[in-house]
Amino acid sequence: MKWTLSKAGRGWLLLLLVVAACSPNPYKSTNKAHKKKARLLAKQLLEFPPDQSMSSAPYWVGTTNFSMRKPNFVIIHHTAQNSCEQTLRTFTIPRTQVSAHYVICKDGTVYHMLNDYLRAHHAGVGSWGYDTDLNSSSIGIELDNNGFEYFDDRQVNSLLNLLDTLKKRHNIPTGNFIGHGDIAPTRKNDPNWRFPWKELADRGFGKWYADTTGLAVPDYFDKLTALRLIGYNTSDSIAARQSFKRHWLQDTTAGWSSEAIKILYQLSR
C-alpha cells in the first residue's frame, strides 16, 4: 500500500522542517571557539619536537610506541546553579575559566562538552591520595542541582549509564569514582548529602562497606591515618571527617559517631 500525505499534511511537514531549520544552536559561536582551540592544541601536538632544551643529542629521535594519556578518576559535582541552561552558559564564558566534560540535566539529558582526553577545569585545588592535580587525571561530571535538592531519578539513571561507559572505555578502578567534596573537603560539599552513593557503589562505581553489626574497633585505631588511607587530605581534620560522613553516611552532623568509626575502620582495612 502506497503511503501519501495530503496537501494539508505536506504543508504541516514543510512548516515543521522550516521551524527546525530556523532554530539555531544557541551555542553556535562558542562551539566555533571550541573547535578553534581544539585545532590549536592539535597543532601544538604536531610540533615535533616541541622543545629541545632538555636534550643534548645531535638530533631528535621520536618513539613509535605511544598513545593518548587516559583519565583514571571520575569526579562528580553538583552545579550549585538553578538550571542546566545556566550551567551551560557558565561553561561557555571564557572569563569563568570553569568547565566539565559532562553536564547532566534533571530530565536526564546528557551534554558532552569536552573530549574525555582533554583537561577540563572542574576540580580546582584538591587531592586524593598522592594525586594533587585531579584536573589532569579525571573526568568531571556536573549534575544540575543547586545543592539543596534531591537528585532526579532520570538524572541518576543517565549518570549510571554514562559511568558504565566511562568505566569500560577507560578501565577506571572501582574506587576512583568520588565527589568534589572528597578531593576538596575544605572548599566543597558536592555532590550534596542527598546523593545516592550506595546506589552507585552497588553498580561498581565507588567503594562501599559491609554490615558493621558486631564489628569491634581496636583501641589503637587511628582515625586520621584511616582517612588518609582512603584518600582524604587530613590537613584540616574536621573538614576531612565531615566529607567522609557526607559521602558514606549521608550525615552532616558534627563529631564522630560509633557507627561512623566502624565504617571508617572497615573501609580503611
Tags for this model:
269 residues; alpha/beta; 2 domains; globular
Description of the molecule:
The chain is an alpha/beta fold. Helix content is about 40%, strand content about 10%. It has two domains: about 65-210, Peptidoglycan recognition protein-like (Lysozyme-like, 3-Layer(aba) Sandwich), CATH 3.40.80.10; about 210-269, no CATH class.
Concise account of the structure shown:
The chain is of the alpha/beta class and 269 residues long.
The number of helical elements comes to 10
The figure for the number of domains is 2
- Gyration radius (Cα, Å) is 24 Å
Kindly report how far apart the N and C termini lie: 70 Å
- Amount of beta strand: 5-15%
CATH architecture of the largest domain: 3-Layer(aba) Sandwich
* Number of distinct beta strands: 5
The fourth-level CATH homologous superfamily of the largest domain is Peptidoglycan recognition protein-like
Regions with little confidence, pLDDT below 50 for 5+ residues: none
In round numbers, the mean pLDDT is 91
Summarize the helices and strands and which ones pair or pack.
Blueprint: H1 7-21, H2 28-45, E1 73-78, H3 84-90, E2 102-104, E3 110-112, H4 134-137, E4 138-143, H5 153-170, E5 177-179, H6 180-183, H7 197-202, H8 223-230, H9 237-249, H10 258-268
Parallel strand pairs: 1-4, 1-5, 2-4
Antiparallel strand pairs: 2-3
Helix pairs in contact: 8-10
